[in-house]
């Protein structure tokens, strides 16, 4: 064994700083310059022989060296971080999508950070600017709203993928989700097949493309069948249990009880169900209830709720695959990835 090899091994057992190993420690252990180490670790091609590169990698492993990500981010003008902006991290539906996306992104060698915008445009813009300042490689928007910061991001920022809601401005950024219009239409047809012609809708915010399309599909299918929704039967809600409860109270105060109600998401349906119990309406004998999303909590807390099922695991896989293609600069990035929805029929309808 050569003296040089012995020297590298001795150096691998200690660092000059006495603390965490540095790039200089790796360079001394491998017998190369710090510039060579930097080029190899950053993947700069054709700057070192295979033997030298292997020597550096061996030194990295022996020393337990971890590159300082901030420095690498600045040199490459991007980090190994993907940001996911969600409108409500308390909602198990959004949390499950975030979990599925995170697992997919981890498999690509990147990490994910989660930001909760709370459906607030100012918060969305603040997080967009903060994530851009951290040089994230890409941003996933789960529930985007139109804001100046979003428009700037689409004009000159890192790659963006829209999930569940389509991009609220004209953009070529890809979308991953279901056909919300078709899903709303399918609920209306189910109601009609059951003989429910006196229907109501507690729909989500009209600023959300997903909520808007769900309601429009439901409304249009009823109208086409001659069972058009009366104006007092249509109430806009926030996507929360509390809002579902409050707006259900308003619905019942302003008119007689409808035979069936379509809710913009499952939490709205939970709130409606609570109000029905208080008023002694039987579900589904007096009022049928249909939700949307098939929230993961349903299995444990609402096994009675009929709802539209969204394939969360597949959604996460598709989002991470689209982001991977964007980061690789692939020319084969689908503009729209539309997943199949199904109706989950339980006892509430």
Please, could you describe this protein's structure?
By secondary structure, the chain is α/β, with parallel strands linked by helices. The chain contains 14 helices and twelve strands. The chain has a six-stranded parallel beta sheet, sandwiched between helices. It has a four-stranded parallel beta sheet with strand order 7-6-8-9, with helices on both faces. β8 (260-263), α12 (266-278) and β9 form a beta-alpha-beta unit. The radius of gyration is 27 Å and the shape is elongated. Residues 1-14 and 69-77 have low confidence and may be disordered.
Average pLDDT level: 89
What is the H-and-E element order?
HHHHHEHEHEHEEHEHEHEHEHEHEE
Rg result: 27 Å
User: How many domains make up the coordinates?
Assistant: 3
Shape: elongated
Largest sheet: 6 strands, parallel
Widest sheet: strand order?
2-1-3-4-5-11
Structural class: alpha/beta
Instruction: Report how far apart the termini are.
Output: 78 Å
Write a brief structural summary:
The chain has 349 residues and is an alpha/beta fold.
Topology:
Layout: H1 3-12, H2 23-30, H3 34-41, H4 50-63, H5 69-76, E1 81-86, H6 92-106, E2 111-116, H7 121-133, E3 138-142, H8 148-156, E4 160-163, E5 175-178, H9 180-193, E6 199-203, H10 209-224, E7 234-236, H11 241-254, E8 260-263, H12 266-278, E9 288-290, H13 298-301, E10 307-309, H14 312-327, E11 336-339, E12 342-344
Parallel strand pairs: 1-2, 1-3, 3-4, 4-5, 5-11, 6-7, 6-8, 8-9
Antiparallel strand pairs: 10-12
Keywords:
Rossmann fold, 4-stranded parallel β-sheet, disordered N terminus, 6-stranded parallel β-sheet, 434 Repressor (Amino-terminal Domain), 12 strands, alpha/beta, 349 residues
């Amino acid at each position: 064994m050569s003296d040089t090899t012995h020297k590298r091994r001795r150096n691998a057992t200690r660092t000059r700083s006495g603390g965490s190993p540095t790039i200089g420690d790796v360079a001394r252990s491998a017998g190369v310059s710090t510039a060579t180490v930097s080029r190899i670790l950053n993947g700069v091609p054709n700057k070192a022989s295979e033997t030298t590169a292997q020597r550096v990698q061996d030194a990295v492993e022996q020393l337990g060296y971890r590159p300082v990500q901030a420095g690498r981010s600045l040199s490459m003008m991007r980090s190994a971080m993907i940001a996911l902006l969600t409108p409500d991290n308390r909602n198990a539906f959004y949390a499950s999508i975030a979990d599925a996306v995170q697992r997919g992104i981890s498999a690509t060698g990147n990490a994910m950070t989660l930001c909760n915008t709370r459906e607030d445009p100012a918060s969305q813009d603040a997080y967009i600017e903060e994530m851009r300042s951290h040089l994230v490689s890409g941003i996933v928007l789960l529930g985007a709203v139109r804001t100046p910061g979003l428009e700037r991001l689409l004009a000159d920022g890192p790659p963006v993928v829209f999930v569940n809601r389509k991009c609220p401005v004209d953009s070529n950024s890809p979308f991953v989700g279901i056909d919300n219009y078709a899903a709303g239409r399918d609920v209306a047809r189910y109601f009609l097949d059951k003989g429910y012609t006196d229907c109501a809708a507690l729909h989500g915010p009209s600023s959300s493309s997903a909520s808007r399309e769900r309601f429009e599909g439901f409304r249009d299918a009823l109208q086409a069948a001659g069972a058009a929704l009366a104006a007092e039967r249509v109430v806009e809600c926030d996507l929360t249990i509390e809002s579902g409860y409050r707006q259900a109270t308003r619905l019942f105060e302003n008119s007689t009880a409808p035979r069936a109600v379509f809710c913009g998401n499952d939490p709205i349906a939970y709130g409606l169900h609570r109000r029905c119990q208080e008023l002694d309406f039987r579900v589904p004998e007096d009022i049928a209830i249909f939700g949307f999303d098939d929230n993961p909590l349903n299995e444990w807390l609402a096994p009675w709720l009929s709802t539209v099922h969204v394939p969360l695991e597949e959604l996460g896989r598709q989002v991470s695959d689209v982001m991977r293609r964007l980061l690789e600069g692939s020319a084969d990035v689908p503009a729209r990835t539309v997943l199949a929805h199904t109706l989950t029929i339980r006892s509430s309808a």
